[in-house]
Amino acid sequence: MIGPSLVPDLAALPPSLRLDRTGDVAVLSLSRAKKRNALDDATVLGLGAFFAAPPGWARAAVLAADGSHFSAGLDLGELRERDTLDGLHHSRMWHHAFGQIESCPVAVICVLKGAVIGGGLELACATHIRVAERSAFFALPEGERGLFVGGGGSVRIQRLIGAARMTDMMLTGRVLSAADAERYGLAQYVVDDGAGLDTALGLAARVAQNSPVTTYAVLHALPRIAEAGPEAGLLLESLMSAVAQDSVEAKDRMRAFLDGTAAKVTNPQESNR
What we know:
Blueprint: E1 17-22, E2 25-30, H1 41-52, E3 60-65, H2 84-102, E4 108-112, E5 115-117, H3 119-124, E6 129-133, E7 137-139, H4 153-161, H5 163-172, E8 176-177, H6 178-184, E9 189-191, H7 196-208, H8 212-227, H9 230-245, H10 248-258
Parallel strand pairs: 2-3, 3-4, 4-6, 5-7, 6-9
Antiparallel strand pairs: 1-2, 7-8
């Protein structure tokens, strides 16, 4: 385990977060299993601080969780009567913290299992790649509790599954399975229970081998291209393409491709025959 005291550029983590290292992949785990990894303010602020400045050795990151659940959402201990302005600032604090995950300089892959509820789902949707174990279930109970999402869900969740499906979840309390989540776009991978972390680490190891310039373009330019008009998107694509192909890594890999030493893309189904 890599403790925060051993990483000079890493702010002290709260007890609810634990950092481990696997090669050049940072593994940050929610460590409140007895509370189903419910999110209190210290945890949310710690997540934001970590992903704003991940360790210098990290080329990719995995967000995992201790116990049987990813996160049951907002810690009930944080529920208190707030006036409108206080509630606004609290929501914006979550926005800022989860925004640091979305804009992290390295790709963040999360492992989902058990409860992925409310703020836990908002947290998951701020990551870049989501691996769901079959035990995972997804819900937004805020509507039934007289509340509204406040951790960025109205933007990130509905961007993934659409406003109609999010409306259904919030108004009826519908709970989605891992298979539903993959079908709707909440998860890119579904794996057997217990296989999530190894799968995420394997994906992270592959991502870590990519050119940092390409990774940056995918994480930061691609979402903006998706939200831009066609002409602005195409211009941004051309600019990022020119920047990426001028990197040292791109030139080395292109030479390997041209001289036949680069790995070829193969059909994974062929190897199963």
